[in-house]
# Entry
Amino acid sequence: MPTTVSVKKTNVVHSGQRFISGDIACAEGALTAGCRFFAGYPITPATEIAEHMARRLPEIDGVYIQMEDEIGSMAAVIGASYAGVKSMTATSGPGFSLMMENIGLAVMTETPCVIVNVMRGGPSTGQPTMPGQQDVMQARWGSHGDYEIIALTPSSVQEMFDLTIQAFNLAETYRVPVFVLADEIVGHMWERVTIPEADSIKIVNRKKPTAPRNNQFAPFMPTEDLVPPMAVFGEGYHFHATGLTHDERGYPRTDSAEAQTRLVQRLCDKIRKNKDRIIRVENAMLEDAEVAVVAYGISARAALSAVRKARAKGIKAGLLRPITIWPFPEEPVAQLAKRVKAIVVPEMNCGQIVHEVERAAKETTVTFLPKLGEEPHKPDEILEAIEEVIE
Amino acid sequence: MEEFSHPYEKFLRKDRIPHIWCEGCGNGIILNCFARALEELSIDLDKVVVVSGIGCIGRISGYTNTDSFHTTHGRPIAFATGVKLANPELKVVVISGDGDLFAIGGNHFIHAARRNLDLQVICANNFIYGMTGGQYGPTTPLDTWTTTTPHGNIEQAFNLVHLAAACGAVYVARWTTLHTRWLTESIKKALQKEGFSFIEVVSQCPELFGRYNKMETAIKMMQWFKEASEVQHFSDPAKAEITSNRITVGEFVDIEKPSYGRLLREMKARIREKK
# Structure
């Protein structure tokens, strides 16, 4: 980032034990990851991220701008990333819908950036102050056209910090927009967070081109990992980028089936072929489990409690928690399905990720536990389902 | 045979020529004036970013030999906002059309002007959506025929210079594609000005506007510009609506006001002093 001001590491990374909310932890994680640009629009329950960034960013030579809407926010985030600065926005359902247009542009122009969606109840304006997990499928498919996306689902305030850093690292590694899919409870909850020393935190920065700055430069020529090194504005490359289907030079190829196939397939493949490096899940008590709960985000906390209660009753239950929800951890779920008799999926929606679980766990019974409204599943509700399916 | 060389070829991506614009289109004239302005100011091309939206003129970013970005429809100003704030050393110029900037992108325009961001916005106003085949847009004059006003246009047209002035732009000018020297001078002025500048270029689309409105050639359209236009500096932008017999051109606004970039720098400096 072009800057004349030096900023002390300790001003950026507030190492130590902190008692903060999920939204604040997310903002601190972003700053730690190197984010210096935030464009957003106030929306419950993500506003606190914007407020914290508005206070902190100018202190460390960054930029906070409140745009006229979420469409503009997402466009500005892409612009800042192309100017060489790690950038992000944070929103909730209605704003996420408006961002979909330019999330597609970020995919197409391979723009590293982070979009936080602190999910609330929908559809439409829905329940702004209530939690939900209703945007998981929108996160996967919300923008038009074919693409793969990375989305992480924190289930604690600590993870709001950790996974926001990871989201930036993944965005920079694969030149993609990355989602942090939180929910109102995780966003507004206050918990103790450990912020490590700056030097012990792994930070990834996009790889830079080494090609000469001449009129043969191809800004979208991938290396072996299918990811092109990223030139940014002002470096003398004089490159062109467009939302149109383009070739490796960045030039529009609007009438070539071959160009469309080559580009779109690579955009998908750079995620698909790196799935094993991207996907993270957490297992609890699964070694000898006969019944498993697959749950993510806030639902996973009640699920863990239910599994412990089941164990206390002598039921061999366990939990598989996808930390990466997209790409979906198909393989871990498929392996799990071979070992257990039944799977329970609690979600704060009318059934979204359960279909992914069913697809991966072909031969096992999958029971869905929907939940809508103000509170997450009670552990006893999940326990009841575990007891029912084991009978 | 001697190789043909254009006096401004260093401003063009030669491997992108021929361009996609129709014969008689005004976009080439705008590109030429922009290149000339850069040349006359000796601006470092490494530090210029051309941002465009969707539409015929939107392809201009693919032809300029600078860093350039062709955004989604209506979003070039919002994208440019991110670029300029992330790296204030860059000269960020938005060149786009009337539909892109004032229909689908209208919200971004009014707020960028209000914020007084350090951006230069050049609008090619051809009165219609050209790329999609000539539908009416926010600047289509009353009563004209387009493919989606087959019974005549009953919508009032935006007066872009009035809008820009009201939103707070520090520099506002309007020219037609006939006024190439004036236009070049205006672009030069805008490029050197602190804050948000706006230049409207009334441009001809003989294929899809002229042809259906009794001006089927570029010459006929430019004849209209010639007969209707009157140079009047610093006249009231509110009274500068474009009509069939009057196109007021000239500079409308040229004022000084601290830009967003300056206020941001000052705010950061204040924060540093406090610490």
In short: The radius of gyration of chain B is 18 Å. Chain B has a mean pLDDT of 96.
